[in-house]
Design brief:
This protein is α+β, with helices and mostly antiparallel strands. The protein has two domains: 39 residues; 158 residues, Glucose Permease (Domain IIA), CATH 2.70.70. The chain is built from three helices and 15 strands. A hairpin with a 5-residue loop joins strand 7 and strand 8. The radius of gyration is 19 Å and the shape is elongated. It starts with 7 loop residues before the first strand and ends with a strand.
């Protein structure tokens, strides 16, 4: 585990909009204003609607985790699409583990949050393809970013941000050595995507496929 003297605590966004969305919203607002000044009514209306949708897409509401110390919270808003036990050859933990997959549609909040307290031990980005995020092969072939987290009692967990069919950009706001807390914002994926959570084999999964979850609020498992 990272030495305490190297651990950092990141400053979180305090705006109701993710910073990655500010350029898009600003550009949309500027174009809307320009069309209005030129008297183009239909383009003004279309651009206004698109700008409002963009602002809504990049929304970043406050969340407060509420659960016992051993709770693992969802890293994303969306729907659980799979819970499965994997052997050591099938996963980034390198040991038998439990995988929980969460799909984010275009209409979900896309800010990702930490699943528990701990320290970031490593981050590994993989360029890749762009299959639909709800397909199994997306975990292995799509653009993705792997964040490994170690708890105070030495448990290792992995969260993988997986880009979807439309997404072309994964944002990650933490670095190795950062001390993080459950529910803390750590990244974002644009326009439809998926989060894969790898947990110790003995973790008690608290969700099932088809269940809706919210980042930083819904408990998806309990560590033992």
């Amino acid at each position: 585990m990272t030495s305490p003297r190297n651990q950092r605590t990141r400053v979180e966004n305090t705006l109701p909009l993710a910073r990655e969305g500010l350029p898009f919203v600003g550009m949309g607002a500027a174009l809307t204003l320009l069309m209005a000044l030129l008297g183009f009514i239909l383009p003004t209306m279309v651009l206004a609607v698109l700008t409002l949708f963009t602002a809504w897409f990049f929304r970043d509401p406050e969340r407060t985790p509420d659960g016992p110390q051993n709770a693992v919270f969802s890293p994303a808003d969306g729907k659980v699409i799979k819970t499965v036990t994997l052997d050591m050859a099938d996963n980034p933990l390198g040991t038998p583990c439990v995988l929980v997959c969460i799909f984010m549609s275009l209409f979900n909040v896309h800010v990702n949050r930490m699943i528990t307290d701990g320290v970031i031990s490593s981050i590994r980005y993989h360029a890749g393809r762009f299959f639909a995020a709800n397909l199994d092969k997306a975990s292995e072939e799509n653009e993705r970013n792997r964040v490994t987290l170690e708890t105070e009692d030495g448990k290792r967990l992995v969260v993988v941000q997986v880009a979807g069919l439309v997404a072309r950009r994964i944002a990650c706001w933490v670095e190795p050595g950062d001390r993080v807390r459950a529910g803390q914002r750590f990244g974002l994926i644009r326009f439809g995507s998926r989060l894969d959570v790898y947990l110790p084999e003995n973790a008690e999964v608290a969700v099932q496929p088809g269940q809706g979850v919210k980042a930083g609020q819904s408990v998806i498992a309990y560590l033992r």
